[in-house]
Prior knowledge:
The structure holds 4 protein chains of 4 kinds.
Chain B: H1 3-24, H2 28-48, H3 52-76, H4 91-116, H5 128-137, H6 140-172
Chain C: H1 3-29, H2 36-39, H3 59-75, H4 77-83, H5 90-113
Chain D: H1 2-33, H2 37-44, H3 47-63, E1 85-88, H4 98-102, E2 108-117, E3 127-138, H5 147-151, E4 157-160, E5 174-175, H6 177-182, H7 201-207
Antiparallel strand pairs in D: 1-4, 2-3, 3-5
Amino acid sequence: MSLxxxxxxxxxxxxxxxxxxxxxxxxxxxVMAHMQGRLGPMYAGGFHGWAQLVADGVKFAQKEDVTPRxxxxxxxxxxxxxxxxxxxxxxxxxxxxxGVVGADVGAGVLFVLAAMAVGILGPLMAGWASANKxxxxxxxxxxAQLLSYELPMVLAAAxxxxxxxxxxxxxxxxxxxxxxxxxxxxxxxxxxxxxVAELQRVPFDMPMADSEIVFGPLTEYxxxxxxxxxxxEYAGIVVMSLLFTVLFLGGWQGxxxxxxxxxxxxxxxSAVAFVVIWFRVAWPRLREDQLQRLAWLVxxxxxxxxxxxxxxxxxxxx
Amino acid sequence: MTTLDVLFTAVGVIAAxxxxxxxxxxxxxxxxxxxxxxxxxxxxxxxxxGAELIALVQVLIYVGAVVVLxxxxxxxxxxxxxxxxxHDTGPVQRVAAAVVAAGTTALLAGVLLAALGGRTVQIHGGxxxxxxxxxxxxxxxxxxxxxxxxxxSLVAALxxxxxxxxxxxxxxx
Amino acid sequence: xxxxxxxxxxxxxVGVLLFVAAMGARRLIAPSAPTPAKESTYECGxxxxxxGWAQTNVRYFLYAFLYxxxxxxxxxxxPWATVIRSSDLALASLAEVGIFVGVLLIGLAHAWRxxxxxxx
Amino acid sequence: MSDDDxxxxxxxxxxxxxxxxxxxxxxRTMDAEQPEREPERGERGGLVxxxxxxxxxxxxxxxxxxxxxxxPDVLPDLPPRSRGTIALLEENCTSCMLCARECPDWCxxxxxxxxxxxxxxxxxxxxxxxxxxxxxIDFSLCMYCGICIEVCPFDALFWSPEFEYxxxxxxxxxxxxxxxxxxxxxxxxxxxxxxxxxxxAEVTALSKPVRPGRATPPAGRP
Lengths: 318, 173, 120, 222
């Protein structure tokens, strides 16, 4: 692989990373507004406020970036980058269609999970380095939640890998069969719930719970660094939606997959992202103790059961 | 020197440097964060050597879980922002640690050099499938024993945490 | 095997560059007028009390520990995926993993039975 | 007898009640021992349907057209008695200061001077009248209670539905009589009387048959 190719691929991944989260964010603006009987942004850019997030970005860049006096300056300043780069790296290995992928890593499933595991450090660093009580509490909550829900996610992903007999994301899509929608359903549910929790979105937004701990680990952040955390959150939705599509919905499989595969992936991922946004509007926040119980007493056993089903099924059918 | 050699050297130097920083820094949490860099670059070393699965597991377990555990423990037990003198070690301990570290390095280097010398070893068996075949075919007993080990540590940890939690809950109810 | 990881390295580099460039742009565009009040720790408008450290529930630590144990368990499932279809290891590996996970499930059941998954 | 009865009943119920209370308490302690179990069992019937009900409600709201009024583009259709601002009909004002005195916020400023009018008839008396020099309302203080409008005996103050007079500086919210006068144009005509309502006092007075001699007010007049 030549240096030029590496550069081109990296830049394309970066472009996708900067565009797709904005699309999700704008969709959230509009979908959430309509679900609440509002219109949402209507002015920026002219047509139904399509440029609202661009305007927000410009605004964020013009805002003063305050580092609190008590904060640990370097850790405080680097935390957004850790969150951001983790999701950027995760995005780079997700395939769009057959052969179209930033980096076709052999053990793609494990790679995405590992990249997102590193992202846990972001909120934890932010929470500690702010030297703020709300931030520390939020950081603790974030890390405990991300760890607890990482496990069901790993189990559900392992079940899919088991069903496909490969760790490569492209390989999983090629092995996918519509029947998976049925016998991987518990795993899919577990994965979706865990993914929403990993994204720290409603109903699992206790780390950010604004009515309890201001804004959790992001309390002290301002300006562009705050914007980067938000970008990471929406990039997270993109990554999770694509990953869910690839693992459970068959990625680019569908009619005219040869020509329209990329469209299928995007359509399915958009549907998943829509569902994630929908959850945010429809449901209230869970309580902190319910959160951990749900993870350990519902999702983990369900994930293990799915694993058992998959294992036995695969052994019996081969 | 091939590209791989260059990459390995670069990653190794970063790993070693961050390891040194992690033991010399006076900020407790910084030490843990430097440990993240060390473990992450170690994963890079494994990757350059062709062990993809090991590298990814290294990131997933060590960076994503073990270091987070360490950070948790630090933050729960009062980790101040800024250098902390009370966690510092005295000169005697430092010298002792340096001697032990140098001794370990010398021993390892000696053993490895004596065993392999200047020979180039062909790497094989790094692929995930081969590793899995070995693991589930040949190393079954260590694998199963590992689960028992994990169980024991889990029960032990729960027992320790219960020592604190139980009187509390009795008081409350 | 390594060439996709070159792209991953490139992506990391590009991400870092994005962050550095954005921070550079911020330095040029954004105002900077620090005042002592602005730089003080935010505590809902009240003067900060004590230092920036709060007593947190030790349970958080417990969950982290549980995760470490189970993550070690879960990573073995991934290599399993690559051999479960091989003719000579299918049944054997199923049994092995079954025992492996079963032993750890005892741990989870133990934690649950002693009420350690409750939030106090 | 009845008193006795009730006392006995109360006495009999006493231990029962106490028993009930202890039951409650033991329930509560059980709850404390297993805090999550009780509510969860109650939820189990409604949890899953509740989850989907939330989704259905939001989905229905999404496909229902919203009622948002896009204000700067589409002006709102305000009801006739909207309290937008207070308009002044300068000709009616006699500078009697009633409004300024009744204002709870003391936000009305009135300056006036007396002017002598020459007698209109030969040998007549000269008359004096008040000339309004300044009439200002500070809308940064005004709380839109409408007391000034109520107390004005000469119908010089009116509610206007006009509301677009925001300023970027709070000191610019003090509006003088020329601005208050401009708003008179936006005051809607008084609403029509309800069908079957009594006629206005003026109309009643005019429609009375003209009687020769001294007019005495009727006894039962309201």
